[in-house]
Structures are given as structure tokens and as C-alpha cells.
Amino acid sequence: MGLSVHPVPGLPEFSPGDDLAAAIAAAAPWLADGDVLVVTSKVVAKVEGRLVPVAPGEDREAARQRAIDGETVRVVARRGPLRIVETRHGWVVAAAGIDASNVAGDALVLLPEDADASARRLRARLAELLGVDVAVVVSDTFGRTWREGLTDVAVGAAGIAALTDFRGTVDAHGNRLETTQVAVVDELAAAADLVKGKLAGLPVAVVRGWAAPAPAEDTGTRPLVRLGPGDLFRFGTRDLVPSRRPAAEVVPRPGDLDAVAEAFRVAAAALPDFPVVLRYGGGDGVVDVHLPERATVTTALNLGAVLGAVVVQLHAEGWATRWEPVGTPGGSSLVGRLWLGSTPA
Amino acid sequence: MGLSVHPVPGLPEFSPGDDLAAAIAAAAPWLADGDVLVVTSKVVAKVEGRLVPVAPGEDREAARQRAIDGETVRVVARRGPLRIVETRHGWVVAAAGIDASNVAGDALVLLPEDADASARRLRARLAELLGVDVAVVVSDTFGRTWREGLTDVAVGAAGIAALTDFRGTVDAHGNRLETTQVAVVDELAAAADLVKGKLAGLPVAVVRGWAAPAPAEDTGTRPLVRLGPGDLFRFGTRDLVPSRRPAAEVVPRPGDLDAVAEAFRVAAAALPDFPVVLRYGGGDGVVDVHLPERATVTTALNLGAVLGAVVVQLHAEGWATRWEPVGTPGGSSLVGRLWLGSTPA
Fold this sequence. Notes:
Hypothetical Protein Ta0175, Chain: A, domain 2, alpha+beta, 4-stranded antiparallel β-sheet
């Protein structure tokens, strides 16, 4: 019972092409079956050559912002130079996980291209070199919404299930646990960080005593990615801009009327200062928006306010929209059509 | 070098009024100076009587939703029965941290009233009982945005600094670390969870080898709370409703014009289908909103759309707003005034 967490001292500074597994095998010949080897993503990225050079005289911060652009699928929130982005791996992290510490001044280190594959290779090579069956976790340091301070989490894993699933099990009081999945690879990364530190030149640690067998299917950290419908925080502050892609093409998708009805309800509740009752109708990705009476400037302004909030809400829920004004209607109450759906991939 | 993490077996089931410190002292007489004792919040809450009874025949889920209401300062996101809320303690957590597992069927367990105070009391009592100087972390199981799986974090602490601050230190390459603060109490809670488990009846673990002296000022977990201006994710999906409090009273605060200018810029970029150029002016918490020309229904609608998005954006940034329409202007371009500031506490 119990765990121990051991740093691995004596590792060299790594460069592209270095044999990380051989260096670890030499520094930790005591590795044993069942150990969890936790390796900081930075050294994995360095040996894999995931470096962006910073030219002499070039501004390091400008180079970093450009490197972030290259790793970013989507900006989730932004404040000044700080960008929280979704990376190609599906991680949502400040600055795409690129930072400028623990690397020489002429380079920046990206996250590994595929840290699950890196972990699998490291695991296989350690089996060859030392004859041991270890799990490997590749860790990185992430922030958390609503909490100060960073913690280490897993961005790659091999030979270990990322999640321990307690769903459906029953506690001592007979209560069925409905939703509890524990991100054990993140907890292992956090435990390892306690002995690694940010400055001590200790990029590797070993957790001993975590007695879980390797899973049948080695899905690495993919089960940890939560994006799409399960994500309730798709857009943060200052990120109402849904996409750089023009919304001219909007492909209908199911659920549009429900989404609009809900968005109107939320918007109307959020904007009590803009009283408007409006009718909407249509279907198949297009919603006709009517004013309830002959439009005056005030009612049009109020309708517009609710409509603007509706569009923002729909974007936040992942819909694409396009607004087609009908023009100043002569006696008609129809002011425009709201198209919604997806944009073509 | 290195840490060890030990479960504390042999603890009884706890009830209100029980002496938790005495039970821990009896089960872990081997506690030593410098150990970090990690205690699941649920047992702390139980001995402190933070239980909500569920009457016979009463629906447990309905009782739970009512209990969540009582602990909630603000709903941050909502989907169906799932609510992610800000608690009175400043934690943002699903269901206000109330769950229905590991407790008898006739009760629900809330988070401790003040888990930092609980940790301080436990620490002082263990010093009395065993003559040891330990740190105490009260842990709870939280979800994380954009990641599946829960991890344990700290909701209370005593005798330990919540954050280790590396800001301003210099790495081996001469790079100054600008932003790195590590939430070590969260990492300790995560490490302890690896030996506690959700079902095993092991609510307490000890981390040995974390060699940080007690801080001069014992601020517990308060430094971990990130709300207000630093929070880029103030509103999640389906939560544009800013507050149940009427915004009739809005107290000016500094920065209003800058905030409005930025919100107009973001809103205009987010709503390219509603072209409008508008002037805004004023100050001291009130912004006059003008149409750029004599208002037509179309320009008023477009202005309204941008204005609605502006209001949503301002709410997302933590401002309170009140809109005061001027009425249909006779030749004037002024359509209304947007008051913004805080609402009185």
C-alpha cells in the first residue's frame, strides 16, 4: 500500500536526435516492472527536434506569438498578449503550451507532435534496454480556469489507462456512483511534478506502487480530450469572434429551431432593458424574424439587441449564423432571416 | 529526495460531532514533523455537521438541486440538470461540490463551511495530540474544463503555502520565469488521491518528504481563488444571464470607457452581418450611444444587434449595465445611454 515518487537525477541537457530512452536507462537502471515513468514534455520535444529557432536580434516574444499561431486550431480566449488556444492535439492551453523557459535563448520548444506515440516509443525502448514493463506519462504544465497556479497534467501516455472508471460501482452505503471517472494520468503527472520542480534540471520522475495493469487497448491520453458538445466553455472573454472563415456558406443541421428558441429565451432574460416580444418561424436552417408590430426605431433597436445576443449565444453553442436583412419592410413585420447551421469543412 | 504517499487505513465511519483529529491520531500515530496530511473534504464536512437531510420518500435529486441552490453565489454554466456554479468559498465546481456518494441515503454532504479553518483546527489538534508539526490539506474532487476525468484539488489548507512562486527566478539558460506559480497543494491533493480511491473507505493519506516550511502568514487556499478580472471564463454555455439582482443601481467604476470601446470593437467584429458605425461618448459610468445618421428601422436594428452583443460582452467581463433609452429621437442621433459599473454589494 502506498506510493513513492522518485526524481531521476543525472540526466544531461538534451538536443535533437539524442537517445532519451538510453539516457533514462543509464540514469535509472533501478526501473522496475509496474513503475510509472513521468517525463516532462520539454525533453521529449527537444530530442524530437520540435524546436522553433529564434534568429539573432529577433524579438523572442514576436517569435513566440508566431509559433503559437502555427500550433493553434482555435483561439478560445484572449487578453492582451495572452491567448488560450485549442492545439492540434485537442488540448486547451495558454500559448499552445509553448514557453520560453529551460531552453537556450535561440529557440522555443513546442509540444511533441504526438506525445502518445512518443510515450509508446519510450516504453518500448525501455523494455528493450532494461527488460522492464513500465508505463510512461509525458507531462506538461497547464493552468486551470478559476484557479490560480499551474499543475502538471498528462499530454501523452502509454501502457496505462488515462481514466479510472468508477461509474456504476456501488459505495459502502449502497449509492451507485454515476459520473466518477478519475484522470489518474493527470494525478500521476502532478505527483511527479512535486519532485521534479521547474528549475532543478530534473525532467524525469518515477512513481512506484501504482498497481494498475496495462490496458488492452493503448489509447494514451485521447480519452482526456473534451471538446465539442461536452464542452461548456467553448468561448472565453473577448472571443466572441466565432471564426475567421466567412459565414456566407451555412449548411443546415438538425436542431436549429430548438437552438434559436433557447437562444432567444436566454438573450431576452439577459437583456431585461430591451423588452421585445418577437415571433420566429421557418425551419431547415432558416428562421424568419418578425417584429411584433409596425417597427419603430425603438422596437427595432430592442429587437436588434436581442438578436445580437442571440447570435453571440448561438456562436457560443457552436452554430454558424448568417443574417439576411429584408430591408425596411413596407407594412410587413418580417425584418430578416437568420440562417444557421455549420460552415462547410 | 523523493516523496512517499501513505494511505491511513482503519478510520471509522464519521458522524457529526466526532473527533476527527483523535481518530486520525489513533490511526496514524506514526505522523511526523513535515508530513502533509490530506483529508477528503467529505469526512471534514460530516464531523462538522454539514449535512442536508433527505426526508423519507423525498426525491434525492430534487433535494440535491435545492442544496445546490443554497450553496450557489452564481451559476457559471448549465446544461440540463448539470450546473457549474461559483460557491460561497469562491470555488467554481459542478453541483457546488455536493454529491450523493459515500454518505447514507438519508443525507447529502456539503463542502465544509470554511475548510481552511477546518485544516487549521485539525493541524492544531494534531500538534496537541501527537506533538507533531504537520501541514493539512482538505481535498475535494473537481472536474476541469476541456479535460475528461476528475482530479483531487485542495479546498482547504493550513501550515503550507498553496502556491510555490517561481516568478522572477532564472533557469539554467538564463531565462527569467515570468508567470510560473505552481499550485502545490493541488498537486499534493492529487498525489494523495492515488492512494485514497473513491470506494475503498480511505479518506485520509499522508505525503511524506515535501520539505517546505510553514509560511509566515497562513492564508490557506485563498491564494488559489481566481475570480473577477483575472477570470477569462466567467460565463459558460447557456449562461448569458448576468445576475438575478436588478441592475437598476449601477455604481460607476474606473475603466468604463475603455471597456465599452473594446466591447464595441469585439461585438462589431463578431457580427459582420450587422454593419454599423456608431459614436459613443460620455464618461463617469455612462456612455451616450448615437446612431451615425437619422435612424431607419434597419440601422436601428443593426445598432441594436451590436449593442446587445456589447452588453453580453460587458457582462462576460464582469460589468453590470443598465440601458436607458431616450425614445424615438426627433432629429437627434442620441438613442440611449448605457450605464455601466458594479452593482452595490
